[in-house]
Structure formats: C-alpha cells, structure tokens
Amino acid sequence: MTYDLEERTAKFGENIIDLCKKAPKNVVTVSIIDQLMRAGTSMGANYAEANGASSKKDFKNKIFICKKEGIETKYWLRLLAKAEESLAKECRILWQEAQELTLIFSKIAKSSE
After folding, report:
1. Distance in angstroms (rounded) separating the CA atoms of residues 96 and 29
2. What pTM, to 2 d.p., does this model score?
3. Which of 63, 3, 11, 62 shows the shortest CA–CA distance to 40?
C-alpha cells in the first residue's frame, strides 16, 4: 500500500467541508465554521505547496504551517462539537485525524532540520 499524505490531507479537507455544510449557521456557529474551514482545508494546500518547495527552508516552513493549521483545526473542531452537540461524534473522528496529521507534520519538520 502506498502512503500518500497529499491525498490524505485532501480527503481530510473534503471531510471538513462536508462537516461544515451540515452545521447549522447561527450566531454561535458561523465564525467557528468559517475558522474551521480555513484551518482544516489549508493543511492540504500547504502540504501541496511544500512538495513544490523551492528550497529546503521553504519546505520546512510549509510543513511547520501544516502543523500549526492542524493544531488550530483541533481547536475549532472542539468548539464546534460544543456549539452543535449533534455533530460531536463526527467532530471527534475528525479531531483524531487532525491529531494524527499534526503528529506526522511534527515528525517531518523535525526530520528536515
């Protein structure tokens, strides 16, 4: 089996989009959804950019951004689960994937030092 992190992060972003489409829009959730969309979909975009990096320094910087976006995604998933309890289970599943991706990006960042 080939391990394709670019595909995995793209699929994660798609799952974030699906979750955000399901979430009811109200005064509490609208900003959470906006922030979650930005953070959750940017991991894949930044990883794709890292793969096309012009230098080792550029690669490491993009990977570090992926890690930071993963941490932020976990935060917004936690808040969405609290704000809309009907989505809590799905948020927990995506939180776990965000955690795994964050750990992967941490490892890549450390190994590229």
Report:
1. 21
2. 0.93
3. 11
Q: Residue type at 99? A: Q
Identity (one letter) of the amino acid at 77?
A: L
Q: What is the pLDDT of residues 68-109, one digit of tens each?
A: 999 999 999 999 999 999 999 999 999 999 999 999 999 999
> To the nearest whole percent, how much of the chain has pLDDT over 90?
93
Taking the C-alpha atoms of residue 73 and residue 70, their distance in angstroms, rounded to an integer, is 5
Residues 6+ apart with CB under 8 A from 91: 19, 77, 78, 80, 81
CA-based nearest residue to 5, from 40, 61, 44: 44
